[in-house]
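Hey all, sorry for the wall of text incoming. These are the two entities for the joint prediction.
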Amino acid sequence: MSEEVTAEILQTHILELAKQGKRVDGRGLDDIRRVTLEPGYVVTADGSALCRLGDTMVLAGIKLEPGKPFPDTPNAGVLTTNAELIPLSSPMFEPGPPHPRAIEVSRVVDRAIRAAETIDLTKLCVTPGEKCWTCFVDIHVLDHSGNLIDAAFLAAVTALSHAVLPAKRFGLAEADSRLPVEHLPVETTFTRLGDAIVVDPTVEEEAAGQGRLTIATDELGRLVAMQKGLVGAFSPDEVRSMADRALQHGDTLRRQIRAGVTA
Amino acid sequence: MGSVGAKEIPQLITPDGRRIDGRLPDELRQLRIVAGPLHRADGSAYVEWGLNKVMAAVYGPREVHPRHLQQNNKAIVQCKYNMAAFSVDERKRPGLDRRSQEISKVIAEAFESVIFVEEFPRTSIDVYIEVLQANAGTRCAGVVAASVALADAGIPMVDLLPSVAVGKVGGKICLDLKKEEDNFGEADLPMALVPQSGRLVLLQMEGHMTRDELSQSLDLGVKGCRSIYEVMRAALREKYSVEPSAATPAAAGVGQ
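and here's what came out:
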């Protein structure tokens, strides 16, 4: 995988604009691009959602299959998250085994889903130590126009909220039931542009950026996961300020996910 | 052709000659094509065909990776056909399997037959096909999507490549099989047509049919390709037409 190529003149322009509190696409420093969520996009999945975050497009699909619990958690189901940065979605992505960047996306998404106890994994246990449900969260990036982590997370958590346990198909119950989703975490990612810190960076802003921080919050106002990435540094005060912003954005996005869930 | 060991073969053709979704033997499923939905690709297309959902993107002509594949007198056409893990009933393990590699190869060869590759020596034209939701005929949907994506990328070609599968279902030759027909039918014959020349650049067959049935299948497939061709052209016209009102909607077919 090669690096994003962004003209130096554009990077300089992005940094100059940020000094004045402006961005190339006209957003304010704390504005998230337009989000649209399409739950139930794939009928072959047990849960799915297409997320558009500006020009970024990510599809998440959930598959639930009977499996065997891990020996150290005999009373819990298994959650597996996988992200594919397929070469269709960016000129920078190449075919082959998962790049560290794809692994980071899947692990950061997985961590927040797990830490927020989004799914009550004990309810996915069928016979302790013998049989449980395995929940596969597969994330397919279709259009990489920046901030893959947030788009992937929105797609994944929306898909989970709509997922159905196919108990009937596998002869484990008379009827299918909703996946036991207990919490609704959301991830919000920031990038440093000089002294300014912007939310939801585009691909050009990521290239010009000096460090990235992702903060996951849940509906109880808890911070459940963080990930600092790329070259750059943040002061403790900056981190505190980003946490406040992440909590606010999280609430707005949660309302939108719920609107889709109940609709 | 997964009929071996199947417990129950559903009735695929009703007494009045209709198929399980109510189509007549020569009817296509609903087909919708969007040209250029992706922002990063040089060209792209999205195809919804019955219950299939397929996205295609084209990059290039660009540098060849790996370098040793480079040809001094022409561009190479590289294709990757891939199915999303959740696109089928039983989760497919991500990554390339032998089926995907074979499909990628025949699709790349089909496109190399119509692209003016000699115009772009030492480059690669990369075609990526992602099956998001599968319901039989995904390689044909992939060829249709990739073809519109190549045109959207401005790659010079002899013609677009409409593609469809014909099959034998309950003893009848039918156009554009859906999943149950593909699983329980007797034969499956995907093809891709160059409308200008009337020649086929992709042709596969699995199952069993007689010489007359083959002949009938080819006629039916060519006819189907010609109507798909119109939907492909309409999708491109919809994106590129100067007068948007002049464009006809990029949809055709009956059934679900």
